[in-house]
Amino acid sequence: MTKIGIIRCQESAMSPDMKRRCAGWGCLAAASKGLAYFDEYDEIELVGIDTCGGCPGKGNTKKIVDIGQNLKDHGVEVIHLSSCISGFCPNRNLFIKALTNDVGIDVKERTHGGPDGKRLPLGPDGKPLMPEELFAKLKTKDS
User: Fold this and answer.
1) How many domains does the chain contain in total?
2) Which of 96, 68, 66 is nearest to 6 (CA)?
């Protein structure tokens, strides 16, 4: 059994716009059902879910390192960065590097795909298409 932690976007979690606010519905559904980016595991235990702590400021990794260490201290073996962080956060690469190097934990990107629960399509580099790439691909397809 793999012990999983999820770090999700604080901006999405705390948005004053109730239509944009996310309580982690997609992340929790995917993890509990073994869907999307959790389908590679035979069995998981979701140990914890936290936010990133908010936008850190240029180059500051203290919050994400503290959050990652707290999850690791509670038994997490792999941290999944939520799809909102993986898809939209300008600090994504900074977070991955800090969690990997400073906390010493495996990091995976994404938790769930779209509303259908499927994985997002892959680009030529084998990585999931970022939203702007996906929209550009769909726009080209429709033209």
Assistant:
1) 1
2) 68
How open is the CA angle 72-78-79, to the nearest 5 degrees?
80
User: With a threshold of 0.85, does the pTM exceed it?
Assistant: no
In this structure, is residue 57 part of a structural domain? yes
- Beta strands per DSSP E along the chain: 2-8, 44-51, 78-81, 106-109
- Which residue in 78, 81, 53, 55 sits closest to 67, CA to CA? 53
Say which residue the tokens 């997002």 belong to: 120
CA 49 to each of CA 55, 72, 114, 128, 138: distance values in angstroms, whole numbers, following the listed order: 17, 12, 20, 22, 32
Question: Is 136 part of any domain?
Answer: no
Query: Distance (Å, rounded) from C-alpha 29 to C-alpha 15?
Result: 21
Please report which residue ranges of 1-60 form alpha helices under DSSP H.
10-13, 25-33
Residue 8: which domain range? 2-117
pLDDT tens for residues 13-71?
Answer: 888 887 778 888 889 988 988 888 999 999 999 999 999 999 887 789 999 999 999 99
Closest residue by Cα to residue 91 from 72, 65, 119? 65
Bridge partners for 5 per DSSP: 48, 79
